[in-house]
Amino acid sequence: MSEIWDDRRKTLENEYFNRKEREAIEKLRGEMNAEEQAAAAPQCPRGHGALTLIKHEEIEIDRCGNCGGVWLDAGELERLTEREKGSWASRFVKSFTG
């Protein structure tokens, strides 16, 4: 009779540890997914955090929520200043691009 109770106790222990193992695996998967999503988001060149995408006049601009820095991709500054012919910004860009 004690063998039956020993087997039952072992079965319950196995179920408990299997459940705890599944919970730990799910927790780790969730953490890994969060890390992958954070790594996939564009990061501030100064290392302050993730960049958010802002649309301004049909141009996508990256902005850091922590330091407030604004980052432009290649050609975006030129497209922004095209509308402002003769302005200081247009002349500034042309001084670098020739």
Number of helices: 3
Q: What summary fits the major beta sheet?
A: 3 strands, antiparallel
Number of domains: 2
Low-confidence runs of at least 5 consecutive residues: none
Quickly give the structural class.
alpha+beta
Outline, from the CA principal axes?
rod-shaped
Order of helices and strands: HEEEHH
By DSSP, the count of extended strands is 3
Q: Could you tell me the radius of gyration in angstroms?
A: 28 Å
Bin the strand percentage: 5-15%
Q: What kind of assembly state do the chains in view correspond to?
A: single chain
Whole-number average pLDDT?
A: 81
Distance between the termini: 94 Å
Approximate helicity band: 55-70%
| Major sheet: arrangement of strands | 1-2-3
3D architecture notes:
The chain has two domains: 40 residues; 47 residues, no CATH class. Helix content is 57%, strand content 14%. It contains three helices and three strands; from the N terminus they run H-E-E-E-H-H. A hairpin with a 5-residue loop joins strand 2 and strand 3. It starts with a helix and ends with a helix.
Outline the secondary-structure elements.
Blueprint: H1 2-40, E1 51-56, E2 59-64, E3 70-71, H2 76-82, H3 88-97
Antiparallel strand pairs: 1-2, 2-3
Brief account:
The protein is α+β, with helices and mostly antiparallel strands and 98 residues long. The protein has helices at 2-40, 76-82, 88-97, and strands spanning 51-56, 59-64, 70-71. The longest helix has 39 residues, at 2-40.
